Model the fold of this input.
Amino acid sequence: MALLNLKDVSVAYGDNVVLKDFNLNIKKGDLVSLLGPSGCGKTTTLRLIGGFIQANKGKFIFNDKDYTKVPVHKREFGFVFQSYALFPHLSVFDNVAFGLKLRKTPKGEIKKRVMEMLDIVGLADYSKRYPKELSGGQRQRVALARALVIKPDLLLLDEPLSNLDAKLRVKMRVGIRKIQKELNITTVYVTHDQEECFSISDKVAVMNEGVIEHLDTPQNIYDNPKTEFVANFVGFENFIDLSLQSKNEDISTYNSKNGRVFKVKSTNINSNKETIKGAIRPEEIKIVNKGGDNKDENTLDGIVGISTFLGKEYQYMVDTEVGKLLVNGNTNKRYKEGEKVKLYLPKEKMVLV
Amino acid sequence: MALLNLKDVSVAYGDNVVLKDFNLNIKKGDLVSLLGPSGCGKTTTLRLIGGFIQANKGKFIFNDKDYTKVPVHKREFGFVFQSYALFPHLSVFDNVAFGLKLRKTPKGEIKKRVMEMLDIVGLADYSKRYPKELSGGQRQRVALARALVIKPDLLLLDEPLSNLDAKLRVKMRVGIRKIQKELNITTVYVTHDQEECFSISDKVAVMNEGVIEHLDTPQNIYDNPKTEFVANFVGFENFIDLSLQSKNEDISTYNSKNGRVFKVKSTNINSNKETIKGAIRPEEIKIVNKGGDNKDENTLDGIVGISTFLGKEYQYMVDTEVGKLLVNGNTNKRYKEGEKVKLYLPKEKMVLV
Amino acid sequence: SSNESKGEDVDKQEKETLIISTWGYNEDILKKNVFEPFEKKHNVDIVLEVGNNADRLNKIRMNKNSDVDIIYLASSYAIQGVKEGLFEEINRENIPNIENIYEIAKAPLGEKYGPAYTVNRTGIIYDTEATKEKVDSWSDLWRDEFKDNASIANITSTAGPAMVLAAAKKADVSIKDDYDKAFEELSKLKPNIVKTYSRSSDLVNMFTQGEIKIGVAQDFAYGRIKDALPSAEWVNPKEGAFANLNSVNIVKGSDNKELAEKFINFLLSEKVQKANALDKVDSPINVNVELTKEEAEGLTYGKDLINSLQTIDYEYINSVMSDWIDKWNREISK
Amino acid sequence: MNTKSRFLTIFSVLVYTFLIFPLVIITAAAFGANDYLKFPPEGFSFKWVANIFEVEMFIRTFKISIEIAVFGTFLALLIGIPAAYILSRYQFKGRNFLQGLFLSPVLIPAIVFGFSLLKFLIIKMQFPVYTSLLIGHTVVILPYIIRVISSSLESFDYSIEEAAVSLGAGRIKTFFIIVLPNITSGVIAAFILAFINSFNNVPISIFLTGPGVSTLPIQMMSYVEYYFDPTIAALSVILMLMTAILMFIIERTLGLSFFTK
Amino acid sequence: MKNKANYLLLLPGLILLGLFLFVPLFSTIFQTIRGKEGLTLVKYFDFFKDSYYISIYLRTLKLALITTLIAVMLGFPTAYYISRTNKKVRGLYIMLAVFPLLTSSVVRSFSWMVILGRNGIVNTILLNLNIINEPLKLLYNEFAIVVGLVYLFLPLMIMSLVGVMENIDNDLMEAAESLGASRLKAFIKVIFPLSVPGLIVGSVLVFTGSLTAYTTPQLLGGSNAKVLSTLVYQNAMSLFDWDTASVLATIMILTTLIVTTIINKLSGKLSGKR
Ligand SMILES: Nc1ncnc2c1ncn2[C@@H]1O[C@H](COP(=O)(O)OP(=O)(O)OP(=O)(O)O)[C@@H](O)[C@H]1O
Ligand SMILES: Nc1ncnc2c1ncn2[C@@H]1O[C@H](COP(=O)(O)OP(=O)(O)OP(=O)(O)O)[C@@H](O)[C@H]1O
Ligand SMILES: [Mg+2]
Ligand SMILES: [Mg+2]
Done:
C-alpha cells in the first residue's frame, strides 16, 4: 500500500492553474524524485505535501489518514526549501537544533545529534556562525542538516544540493541516501541534476506542466522513456522521423524519410503510431568511419559541424541526411569541422516514442 | 595585456581571512570560470571584483585603470547574485529594464531589448509577474536577464544556472556564451557544474581555500591537473602511491608499493618528488578480464564491491592490492559484488601529482 | 466625600478626607504652611487635585460627582462657576476670619460665595536699560520704541482681559459702552507685540532671551525676571494696576461642607497668611499680617497699594468673553 | 563598511546634532546655577535636581505615569501584536479598511478624544479615574503598536516562518520564537513609541485625572504654568538618564536575544 | 483568509476601539450636527464661510505638510544609515533618536528659544562670523513652529522607518548598484519603494501630530501664527464651548483622513503595485 497518496489534486495561484488532477503514490521508505523543467510545478507539489498551500480540489492521504487539512506543524515532515529559509537570528547550531528543541529532546542528545549532523554535512566548525556569514553552499547544507536531524516521517527536499560542487554533491547525496535508508524515511526529492536524480532515487517522476508524464525506476526512465517529452528531457537529444516497415516480437524495422533502414528492439517501442520518432542520445551514436557503405542498416552519413569540449568527451553537431544530430566522440581523436563521417545508431539504444 | 588584474589581494570577514595574496589575470573577451569547493571564496572573489567588498590589501586593475576604489555603480559590471536579489516591488519586466532605465535608454528600445532578453531566457510570457510569483528557476533566469541586458563591460555570474534543469541549463549556457562572444564581454563565471564549466570557459581557475591552485584551459585542467587537490576536484577519484623507477623523455616508469610497474607519459608528470601519486578517473580505468596475468604493466587485480547506477554507466568500488578504487563500467555488462576483475590503467590517462 | 483614589489609604475609618482642587505649584510650601497643619489640627487627610484654572473648572463642571470639596480659582473662572451654580453657598458665620481681610477680598463673588485668600497685581515690567524714557503708564506700551519688543498676556489667560481694559483707558472710553474702541486701540499696539503669551514662564523666557523690552505681567513673575535681568523694573501704571483675586469655594455636592468652611477659615488666618507671605507664595490678604520692607518685596502688600488697585468686573467680562476672544483672535493674534 | 557613503554619514551626524543639541542646552540648564535657561550656563549646581525631590507630587505622579505607561503599553502590545500580524500576514477583503481603523486614534485631536472619554467613561459609565486613564492611554497608543509592528512584518520573509512550522513548531510558538525575534527592532520601536506617548501624554490625561490620580506631564505642565526655573529641565534629564540606564541594563543582562527566550 | 479563527485575533483590538473610541467620539461629534430641528451642518458651513478661519485652516495644513515633508527628508537617510549599522550600535542610535521625546514639550520649546532667539546661539554665531549685521528674526514665526514640530516628530519618523528598512536585504542595494545605479539612485529606486510601509506610518504620525500640536505652535509661534488647535483649546478650555471645539476637531479629523488617504495613494504610486 502507498504511504503517500495524492488524489486528483489541483492547485492554482489565482487564475494560474499549476497542478491539474495530479496523482502521485509513494511507497513507505521509497525515495521518489521529481524531475522536470523549470516552472513545471515541482516546488508546488512539495509545498502542497508539506501543507504550505491548500489544494483547490483533491485529497492527500498519508499513512491511511486524510492529511488534506492537517496543519503543517502536526505533519512531522522535514522540508528543505529551495531558498534555504534559515533563521537569520539563530546560529548554525541553533538552526539545526531548532526542531529537536521543540521535541523537548534532552540537551545532551541535542548537542550530540546536531554535531553529528553538522559533521555529515561538513560544517562542524561552523556551528557558531550565523547564516549571513556563510557561503551559498554552506547555507544550503545547514538547511539540509536542519531537516534531517529531526528524523521526520517524510522528507521533502527541494533542490537541496543545487549550490554545491560536484564532489560535495556526491558526498551529500550519499549521506542523504544513507540516512534515508537507515531510518527508512520516505522522501520526495526535487532536483534538476539527472545524474543525482538517477543515482539516489527508487523512483523518478518526470513532470511536465503540472502533470507526471512518466513515473518509473531510474533505469527504465533512463533507458526507455515513454514519451517524447520525457525522452528529450532525459537526454535523448536526437529525434528522427521514422515510419513502420515491419513489426516483430524481437526486432522491428523502420524507414527514415530518406529511405534508410533502422532496426530497433521491439521492447523499445512506446507508441503505436505509424509515423513515430526514433530517439537516441548523443553518446550512444558511434562515429564509425569516414564515408563507407551507404546501405548499412542503422547508419547515417554526415558532415561534422561545430564541436564543444565536455570534459570527458567532445560533442559534435553532425549534419546528416535527416537533419542535424548531436554526437559525442571520445577524446582520443578530434574530428574537424567539414570532415565526413558515418554514424552508427545501435538498435538497442534507439527508443521509439 | 590583461583586462582584469587582481594583484596580491587579501580579503577577510572580521578575523576570517578568505582570500590571501590572491592573483588573477583575465584577457579581454575571455570567459574565466572559478571552480572550487563550497566556501573556498568564489563568491567573495566576485564580490570583490564587483566592488561590494573592499580588499584589506592589494590592487584591482581594470582596463589599465586602478579600480580598487571605484564605486560599484561606476564600474559598469553586470552581476548575477547567487541569491538572485530581484527587486520584490518591480515586475519581471521592470526588474530587467532597471539598468536600461538608469542609462536613459529610449523607451522603445528598452521594451525591445528587455523582451528580446526575456525571450532568450524563456520568460517572455512572464514579464508582468512579480518575483514572488515565480518558481526558483524562473527567478534565476530573471536575474540573468537583468545582468545581461545592460551589455556590461564585465560580467560576473555567481552560479547563474544552479536552479535549472539539465536541458535548460545547456540552453542557457549556450545563450550566455553566444551573447558573451558577440559582444566580447569579459566574464567571470562561478559554477559548481564541471561539464558546464568546461564547456563554456576559455580558462578555468580551480580554487582551494582562497587560492587559485591551477589556472589553465579547460582541456588542460581536465587532462592534466597540476596538483592533487585539482586532480581530485576534477574527478580523478583514484590515487595510487608511486615511487620513481626511471625517467625518460617520453615514458617514465614507476613502482607501486606492492611492486606493480606503471608506465606513465612523461608530460603527465607534474611533480618532482620521489614518491608521488598517480591519479586516474574512474571512467578511464578499464575492466579487462577476470583474473589473468599478474605481471602485466599498468594493471591491478581487484574484487568488485558495491555498485551504483549513474545513468550512462555503473560505478563499482573495486578492492585492489593498493586500496579501494572507483571504476566505471558500461551498461552492457553488470559486474556482481565479489566478482574478481583485472583493471587496466592506461598510461596516457594517468597523471602524476 | 468618598475616596476612590489610588495610593491614599482609607484605613482609619474615622479619618475624613478633604479633596482640594488647586494649582500645582509651590506644593511643598503650601503643604508645610497650610495642608499639614490643618490635617493635624482636624485629623483629616487632604488629597489634592492639581491643574490650571480651566482644566479644573471644566472637570467639576462636567462631572457633578467629582468628589472635589474645595476649589481654588482665579476670579474670572470663579465667577463662571458661580454663574453655573457649581458652588455651595457658604455660611459666613463659620468663617470668622473673613472679618480680618481687606474689603476687596471679602466677597468678590457676592456674599453667598467664597472669599479671596490672596491678591496679586497685573502691571508692567520693562527693561530700564534698554528703554530711553521711564515707563509709568499703560499708554507707554504703545510707544514706537517698543516696536517688535513687547509682549502682552493672551486674552484667555488670567491677566488677559486687563489688557483690554488698559486699552480702553488709553482710548479714554468706558469699556462697557464701547469695547470696540478698546480693540481698535489694541490693534494699534499690534506692531509692538512679538507675541501674546499664555504662561508667565514664557514671559520670563522672552525677557531673559532679550526678545522683549516690555511686557504686561502679573507681579509674581517679576522676581524671576529681575533675577535674570537686573535692569528690569516693575511699574504700577499711574492709571492703576489691575487686581486679580484668587478665591476659594466649596464645590456643590461636597459632603464635607463644615470641614471645608473650617479650612477656608484656616486659610485666612493670620498665621497661615503670614507664613505664606514669608515664603513668597501668596500675598497676604489678612489685614493683621505685618511685614518688613524686605519681607514685602515682590508681594502685593499694604493697605495703600491694595486700595489703589483697579478691580475687574468679571461678571461683565465673562458675558462678552466669547466676542472678545473672537475680536482678539482676528485683530491681535491671528 | 561600504554600505554607508560619506554623504550619508555626514547627513546623519547633522540630523543627530539637530536632535541632540537642544538636549545639551536642557542638560546644561539642569545643572546650571542660573534660574532660567541660559546657554552656556553660569556656574554649576545640583539645586534643580534636588528641587525635583522636594516636590512630592513629582515623585507620586511619576509612579502613576510609569504604571499607566507600562500597563497601557503592555495591554496595547497584547492586543496590537496579534492584530498587526493578521493585518500584514494575510490578504483579505476589508484589510485596508481595518488598517485605517486601527490607525484612527492618532487621527483624532487628543483633546476632543479626552473630553469624549471623560463624558463617557467617568461621567456616564462611572468608571474609576485610574481605570479610565489606563483605557484612554491604551487606546491612543494602540495605533503606534499596530502600525509600526505591521510595517516591519511586511518586509519579513515568511518562508522562514514556514521552515519553522515544518520543523514542528505550532503557529503560536513559531510566532514567538521565529517571527518576533526577527522583528525585534520593530517591536522595540513600537514599545518605545507607545511607552513614551503614554508617558508624555497631556491632552488625554488632563481629562482623565482626578483627585490623587495625576500624571507627571500634567504635574510638569502645572509647574511651568507659573515657574520657569530649570527644575523641569532637570526632570527631563533625569528621565533621559533613567531611560539610558534601563536600556543599558536590558542590553547587558538580556542581550539582544531578549525576545528570543 | 483560510482560517476563520484568525479573525479572532483582531477582535480584542476592535472591541477596544469600538467601545472606548468610536462610541464616545461619535456621541461628541453627533452634538455638532444636531440643530434645533433635526440634523444640520450649519456649524460647518459657518466655519468655511469665514475667511479668517479659512486662513488659519490653511496655515495649519501648510505647516503640517511642510513639517511632514521635512521630517521625511531628514528622517529617511538617517533611518537608512541607522538600519545599515550593526545591531549593537543600532540600539544606541535608536535610543539617541528617542531622547528628545522624553523631555517635556515646554522645555523642548524653550531650548529652541535659546537657539533661535534674538540673542540666541544661531544669531550669535552668524553675527560673529559677520554673515549678518543684525540678528535675524528666527523666533515667533512659522519658521520657528516648523523647526519645533520637525524636532518634535522626527524621532517618530525615524523609528517608523528603521523598523522597515532593516529588513531590506542588502543584496538588493548591491544589485541595483551593479546595474549602474549610484547610491542615491539605488536608494531612490529600491530602498525607497520598499520602505513605503514605514514611510506611510511615519508620515501619518507626523502629519496628524503636527496638525493637532498645541504647545509647540503656542510657544514658538508669534502673534501671527495661530493654528487650528489653538482655536480648539480656546473654545474648549476658555469658553467651554465644546460644540465649536468638536466642529473644529471634526474638521481636523476629516482633514487627516483625506491627507492620509492621499499619502497612501501617492506612496502606492511611488512604490509601484505589490
Ligand atoms: N559575512 C561573512 N562573515 C564571515 N564569514 C563569511 C561571510 N561571508 C562568507 N564567509 C565565509 O567565507 C568563506 C568564503 O565564502 P564564499 O561565499 O566566497 O564561498 P563560495 O566559494 O562562494 O562558496 P559556495 O560555493 O558555497 O557559494 C566561507 O567559508 C564563508 O563561510
Ligand atoms: N505565488 C505564485 N503566484 C503565481 N504563480 C506562481 C506562484 N508561485 C509559482 N508560480 C508559478 O507556478 C508555476 C510552478 O511553480 P513551481 O515553483 O512549482 O515550479 P518548479 O517546478 O519548482 O520550478 P523550478 O525548477 O524553476 O523551481 C511556475 O510557472 C510559476 O511561475
Ligand atoms: Mg522550484
Ligand atoms: Mg558562493
